[in-house]
Amino acid sequence: MGRGILKRLANSLGQVAARLPDTRRPGNDTKYELQDALKSALSVFYLLHPSLLDFQRAMEKKHRRSNLETLFGVKEIPSSNQMKTLLDDIEPGGLDCVFDEGLRISKLEGVYSKQKVLGGLMPLAVDGTWYFSSKEIHCEHCLTQTRKNKDGEEETLYYHDALTVAIVHYNSSVVLPLAPEFIRNEDGMDKQDCEINAFKRYLERRKEQLKLLNPVFLGDDLYSCHSICSKIDEMGMRFLFTCKDTSHRWIVEQTEGAPFEEYKRVEWDGKNHEFA
Ligand SMILES: [Zn+2]
Question: Which carries the bigger pLDDT value, residue 47 or residue 23?
Answer without folding.
Answer: 47
